[in-house]
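Fold it.
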Amino acid sequence: MTTPRADRGRNPDRSPLNWLLLLPIAIPLIPPLFNADEPRLFGIPMFYWLQLAFIILSVAATTVVYLGTRRNR
């Protein structure tokens, strides 16, 4: 049995879901992915609407990690 003092240095959250947080960081760093004018969505060039899609990806990834790693209270 571990005491609270012995457990102090450990990171209690070692969930593999934390790796999902790398997606919103790594994907926008790949310029060939979005360096284009076509296809257009409602007349908006791909560069702009894909940036908005990256925001949605970031929110979704953060929400999944939060809900998957929070402790039941």
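Residues 7 and 28 are 38 Å apart (CA to CA).
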